[in-house]
Amino acid sequence: MSPEILRGVPLAEYTTFRIGGPARFLAIPSTVGELAGLVRWAHQEGVPLLLLGGGSNILVGDGGFPGLVVVTRGLVDVEIEGDRIRSRGGVFLGLLSAMALRAGLSGLEPLGGIPGTLGGALLMNAGAYGRFLGEMVEEVEVLVDGEVEALKGGEVEWGYRWSSLRGYTVVGATLRLVPGEIETIREEMARYSRLRRQKQPLDFPSAGSVFKNPPGESAGRLIEEAGFKGARVGDAMVSPVHANFIINLGRARARDVRTLVALVKEGVREEFSILLEEEIVYAGVFEAGEDEDRPPAGRTIVGEGGIPQNG
Fold first, then answer.
1. 65, β-bridge pairs
2. Of the residues 188, 278, 279, 292, which is catalytic?
């Protein structure tokens, strides 16, 4: 059975920024077979395709996405055997870290507060407090021509906020963790949670860190020293808590965020001769008539093509 294809669903409902216009079509597969069928169809028909996990680290345009959005958070199978966790890509890192805790497995404690799914975290080699997901990966499962293939962790290139998995459809992975004392793991998770509450603006929607840290520098420090902490365009604001976060005060639009990003980048460039690079991804249509393949900054996920049909 194929998953239901919905029409005109606001993508703000599926992003941590709570920003984004409607998807022309949206589907939530519950099996790898359904996911493969949707991806295969989109590729065959040339339909724009956007895979969304937890919806963090992304800014969707006010004009929405002009193709098929596949939400992967329905892929949630997890198996634990010894020091290995085999998980589908739709499992949230917070749930995965909680399951590792119950199994007495250490390694995911710093990453548990990242509001994303395993699939998206693998694509960007998510990390926090000096630990990166790629360090724990034994195997990654990806779709190739509609079939699941396994890549060894050592076959994947892992970089800062980047991996060579970009361009693949990730369906799951096997992580190898380290056995530990449950109480010690619990204490570490609580410590990282306290640090996040102290240093990150968790009271407002955001996409997480906006910019990558330049080599040897802190993007947040550069933005703050350039005078942009608290800067605002519409309801988009550079967080007073952490300057590398842009928060949605309630009614922010994608164009507000993009304008603020451009102002911050130019201000830091003028002050320090450093050009910040976005960590967030741009997807969809930002302005009517805009060339969707050429947004002014960052990366975009778009395409051209036909129309999917139900049935």
1. 23
2. 279
Q: Are residues 66 and 82 in the same domain?
A: no
3-state DSSP helix/strand/coil % of the chain, to nearest 5: 30, 30, 40
Written as six digits, the tokens of 61 are: 């345009």
Is residue 175 domain-shared with residue 249, that is, in the same domain? no
- Clarify whether 161 is annotated catalytic: yes
Q: Is 209 a catalytic residue?
A: yes
pLDDT digits (tens, 9 = 90+) for 120-178: 999 999 999 989 999 999 999 999 988 999 999 999 999 999 999 988 999 999 999 99
Q: What is the CATH number of the domain that holds 236?
A: 3.90.78.10
Catalytic residue among 87, 97, 106, 209: 209
Residues 6 or more apart whose Cβ sits within 8 Å of residue 66: 24, 48, 284, 285, 292, 302
Same domain, 84 and 58: no
The CATH code of the domain that includes 108 is 3.30.465.10
